[in-house]
């Protein structure tokens, strides 16, 4: 099918991919027809979310199948029409080998999050608001990866802030309001600075079109203009990535967010920042990017080590570390590898960064799903309580869940043969021989620090697996944990605790607690991520074959 659909048809498909979740968000707020309510209106609107995100995933798959894989450096599925003539702004959409994998990742993770939420409704206000916000979030994210105009990119970039704020503030856990405010303030202030950079580029170059600007290779912008624009745009994108030291909103947001929010925040939203660096900063302001590259590399490896040390501190016994917070800090380290690859300004490093983007989305999305499952069963994500009387020994109590958690941890530490390996390896190869004009001794030092970071990553992830998955099952559940996933003693165990295992029950105190293992809907939501993590690890050419020609085109200033 590849190459058989003409560009006009692909353009219609791309428009449908971007607009369908927006229309679905509006429809989610309307009353459900009586015949479609099922067991009630809330079930109907949650089913609506699954249906719309599933349709978007199908359309995205058709778009990917129709994409001409022999020309990944060429912008395809293009739509270009005038929007605001006075500003020279156009509705310009398109995809190439850089953006296509991110579109597919966004559609997949949003569908899996909607599917998980259908069977495990997040605690909070009405389901209508939740589904509408998730669909609006999907629309903004897809648009960010599809638009080719700087002002449109800014609008799409901003669209995701409001739904994520409300998902955290209304459906989150402890500290949700403070975390939501911190998220919105950091990202909004960063976006304001980014907009100033866009306006500087557009007014100086006379166009906001990203393809035209990339083809110009910075010729219409002076060195000082490029430096100021790269700095302003880079700061705004670095907040969303997040880059150390602009990262402090992320652990709080992840810890407070509901499971679906954490999956989408880590798996998709963080990618918008690094995508913008590759799509905008490198080709549009090449001189500015070259000047700032050593500083970006230094901040990247600082983030790698900082994130790993923070995780080690959270993982140690008696620290009271939270498992969700630990995975959030691990994202800071993993995105540090992405930033290091971009800082090398080489095809090898940038390809590694884009591969690490996809690998991190798959693996961390899976980990946040798994942590949500652990919290549902134990009633906590506190590592000390999980490793003590209320939990631990997942291998013995819920072997499939424990095995999946160990798989996610091993994939995250970069085991060869899994998706986490290739991105980190390629970024370090890029640092070994950075672009001409960059200090090779400095980047060799960055490579060494990044390699040390991989050892720290292995240390804290194996420590977490040892504390949560290994050991002997507890003799009794803790009263403080209220484990919602303790199984009934019969074969037909459900998600609620039986009377014999409720906290405070004498019968429960005398019996060994058992947990529900992976449910069918959880298996359906998690299996695609496991399969793609293995597939990307064993067949990296599936992604690199798309990104490499497009990256070389961007770095070479091609149109």
List keywords for this structure.
559 residues; mainly alpha; two-stranded antiparallel sheet
Q: Based on helices, strands and strand pairing, what is the structural class?
A: mainly alpha
The overall number of domains is 1
Helical residues, percent: 55-70%
Q: What's the β-strand tally?
A: 2
Assembly type of the chains comes to: single chain
Q: Strand order within the widest sheet?
A: 1-2
Extract low-pLDDT stretches: 476-512
The profile of the biggest β sheet is: 2 strands, antiparallel
Distance between the ends: 26 Å
Q: Tally the helices: what do you get?
A: 22
| Gross morphology | globular
The overall pLDDT average reads 84
Kindly estimate the percentage of residues that lie in beta strands according to DSSP: under 5%
Order of helices and strands: HHEEHHHHHHHHHHHHHHHHHHHH
Radius of gyration based on Cα positions: 23 Å
Could you write a compact summary of the structure shown?
This protein is mainly alpha-helical. It is built from 22 helices and two strands. α4 (127-146) runs antiparallel to α6 (161-171) and α9 (223-240) packs antiparallel against α11 (259-284).
């Amino acid at each position: 099918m590849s190459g058989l659909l003409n560009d006009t048809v692909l353009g219609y498909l791309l428009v449908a991919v971007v607009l369908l979740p927006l229309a679905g968000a509006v429809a989610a707020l309307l009353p459900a027809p009586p015949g479609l309510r099922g067991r009630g209106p809330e079930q109907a609107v949650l089913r609506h979310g699954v249906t719309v995100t599933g349709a978007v995933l199908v359309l995205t798959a058709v778009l990917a199948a129709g994409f001409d894989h022999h020309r990944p450096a060429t912008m395809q599925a293009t739509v270009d029409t005038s929007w605001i003539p006075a500003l020279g702004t156009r509705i310009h959409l398109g995809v190439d080998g850089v953006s296509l994998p991110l579109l597919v990742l966004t559609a997949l993770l949003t569908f899996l999050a909607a599917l998980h939420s259908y069977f495990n409704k997040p605690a909070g206000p009405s389901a209508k608001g939740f589904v509408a916000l998730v669909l609006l979030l999907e629309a903004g994210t897809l648009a960010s990866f599809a638009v080719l105009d700087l002002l449109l990119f800014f609008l799409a970039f901003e669209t995701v802030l409001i739904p994520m704020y409300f998902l955290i503030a209304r459906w989150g856990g402890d500290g949700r309001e403070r975390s939501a405010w911190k998220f919105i303030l950091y990202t909004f202030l960063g976006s304001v600075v980014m907009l100033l950079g866009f306006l500087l580029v557009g007014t100086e170059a006379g166009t906001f079109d990203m393809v035209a600007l990339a083809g110009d290779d910075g010729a219409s912008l002076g060195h000082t203009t490029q430096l100021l624009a790269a700095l302003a745009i880079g700061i705004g994108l670095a907040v969303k990535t997040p880059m150390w030291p602009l990262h402090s909103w992320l652990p709080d947001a992840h810890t407070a967010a509901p499971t679906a929010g954490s999956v989408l925040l880590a798996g998709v939203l963080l990618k918008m920042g690094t995508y913008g660096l590759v799509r905008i900063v490198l080709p549009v302001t090449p001189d500015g990017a070259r000047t700032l590259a050593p500083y970006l590399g230094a901040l990247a490896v600082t983030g790698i080590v900082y994130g790993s040390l923070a995780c080690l501190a959270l993982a140690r016994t008696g620290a009271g570390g939270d498992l969700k917070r630990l995975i959030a800090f691990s994202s800071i380290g993993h995105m540090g590898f992405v930033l290091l690859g971009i800082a090398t300004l080489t095809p090898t490093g940038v390809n590694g960064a884009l591969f690490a983007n996809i690998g991190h989305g798959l693996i961390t999305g899976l980990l946040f799903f798994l942590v949500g499952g652990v919290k549902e069963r134990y009633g906590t994500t506190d590592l000390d309580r999980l490793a003590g009387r209320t939990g631990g020994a997942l291998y013995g109590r819920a072997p499939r869940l424990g095995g999946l958690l160990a798989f996610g941890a091993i994939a995250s530490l970069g085991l060869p043969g899994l998706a986490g390996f290739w991105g980190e390896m390629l970024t370090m190869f890029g640092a070994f021989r950075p672009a001409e004009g960059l200090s090779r001794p400095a980047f060799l030092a960055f490579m060494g620090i990044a390699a040390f970071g991989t050892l720290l990553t292995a240390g804290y992830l194996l420590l977490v697996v040892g504390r949560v998955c290994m050991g002997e099952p507890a003799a009794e559940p803790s009263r403080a944990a209220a484990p919602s996933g303790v199984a009934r003693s019969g074969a037909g165990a459900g998600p609620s605790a039986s009377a014999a295992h409720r906290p405070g029950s004498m019968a429960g105190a005398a019996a060994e607690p058992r947990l529900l293992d992976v449910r069918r809907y959880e298996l359906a939501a998690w299996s695609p991520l496991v399969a793609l993590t293995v597939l990307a690890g064993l067949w990296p050419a599936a992604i690199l074959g798309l990104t490499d020609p497009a990256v070389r085109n961007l770095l070479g200033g091609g149109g």
